[in-house]
UniProtKB/TrEMBL annotation:
Protein name per Swiss-Prot or TrEMBL: Helix-turn-helix domain-containing protein
Organism: Marinomonas arctica
Family: Belongs to the CdaR family.
Stored Pfam families: Diacid_rec, GGDEF_2, HTH_30
Chain ranges of the Putative sugar diacid recognition domain: 4-137
Length: 386
């Protein structure tokens, strides 16, 4: 990317002409006019600028000199510098005596604009590099740890800090909201909250409606405490404006030590979010610790082990079209086999409950009164319902 491009050149022209009132031209290091108060001159080569560049000095263009040059009018041309190098020229059209007092002021103004623009570009580049670094971490896509450490050092990121992954998802707002429903804009608001005050969070957008946050895992400085993390998430949710809070969900993954563990942490956060939204769609916060068994079993759904584990429950599923027996089984598991509490929860007679339980055993050929039998159906239920 050029240090001085047409956009920056026109910014210089607009700012300096408002100060001086004379026409201003901005040329690149090859003498080509990138910005001018006279649009017809843009793209032309300015011979006076070439002279200022080659000699690295202020060049006065008198009417006599201008008549002998191509594309040049009377005025002065001052070389522009950035980090000790000539990057272009600012030319001011007018009578030398009238415009000379303003020359150094406009040169300084132009160089400040260039410096600010490139500082912003460098900052954006660094932010993009940080995002790419974070995406590599959560995907686990790095070949050599030494290269990763060097990259982190260049970005000012410490890989010695234990981190855990969290995901923030913003859904569309309701039709009555007066706020912008664009997910990216909503994420920018949340991003600002995550970065202020500074908490050493590593944040990146993974999609138009999701952010990943790699948070320092040891909030007390000693060990991983999901309860403390849960409290911090509540504080963040309470800081959100109402229009954001209604459409934001946060999922916290599990902490794994080592750099490679960050990808596992992100994976558990993803699965926690998916399962949490399915099981408790109205909740705003989902913690791996609350869905750990479901998350750990999620990888088995399309695996032969998962098919074996869920085989008995699938038999029940195929027979139970109305879902009555599955609802009964779920209540039986919830109440740890207590018939009276289970019957009360289902609002049925104990004899009806016994009939349904016998039916479940007949279909699945599993003894639900034994721990192994009941647990196998419970695992099957968790896998099949994902």
């Amino acid at each position: 990317m050029d240090v001085l491009d047409p956009a920056i050149a026109m910014q210089i022209v607009t700012r300096t002409m408002s100060i001086l009132g004379h026409n201003v031209n901005v040329m690149n290091s090859r003498g080509v006019i990138l910005g001018s108060g006279d649009n017809l001159r843009i793209g032309a080569v300015h011979e006076g600028a070439l002279l200022a560049i080659t000699q690295n000095r202020v060049v006065e263009i008198t009417p006599e000199v201008a008549s002998g040059l191509i594309g040049v009018k009377p005025g002065i041309n001052l070389p522009l510098h950035y980090q000790g190098k000539i990057i272009g020229v600012i030319g001011i059209t007018g009578e030398f005596k009238e415009i000379t007092p303003y020359g150094q002021l406009l040169k300084m103004t132009a160089e400040i604009i260039v410096e600010q623009a490139n500082l912003q570009d460098n900052l954006q580049w660094e932010n993009r590099q940080k995002e790419e670094f974070i995406l590599q971490l959560i995907k686990g896509e790095f070949l050599h740890e030494a290269q990763l450490i060097e990259w982190a050092t260049q970005l000012g990121i410490s890989l010695d800090t234990p981190r855990v992954a969290a995901i923030i998802e913003v859904s569309g707002l309701n039709a009555h909201s007066q706020h912008d429903s664009n997910g990216a804009n909503n994420l920018k608001e949340i991003l600002h909250l995550l970065q202020n005050p500074e908490r050493d969070n590593l944040v990146a957008m993974t999609s138009l409606n999701q952010l990943v946050i790699l948070k320092p895992a040891f909030l007390d400085g000693k060990h991983w405490d999901p309860i403390l993390e849960s409290t911090r998430i509540d504080l963040l949710l309470n800081r959100l404006p109402a229009h954001l809070k209604e459409c934001t969900k946060i999922a916290l993954g599990h902490y794994f030590p080592s750099i490679e563990g960050i990808a596992h942490s992100y994976q558990t956060a993803q699965e926690t979010l998916l399962i949490g939204k399915k099981m408790k769609s109205k909740d705003k916060k989902y913690l791996f610790e609350d869905y750990s068994l479901q998350v750990l079993l999620s990888g088995l759904k399309h695996n032969w082990r998962g098919n074996v584990l869920s085989n008995h429950y699938q038999k029940l599923q195929s027979f139970d079209n109305k879902g009555i027996l599955r609802k009964t089984l779920a209540a039986y598991i919830t109440h740890f086999g207590d018939l009276q509490h289970c019957a009360n929860a289902l609002h049925i007679h104990r004899n009806t409950l016994r009939y349904r339980l016998d039916k479940i055993q007949s279909i699945t050929r599993v003894d639900i009164h034994s721990l192994d039998g009941l647990f196998s159906l419970y695992l099957g239920q968790l896998i099949a319902d994902q």
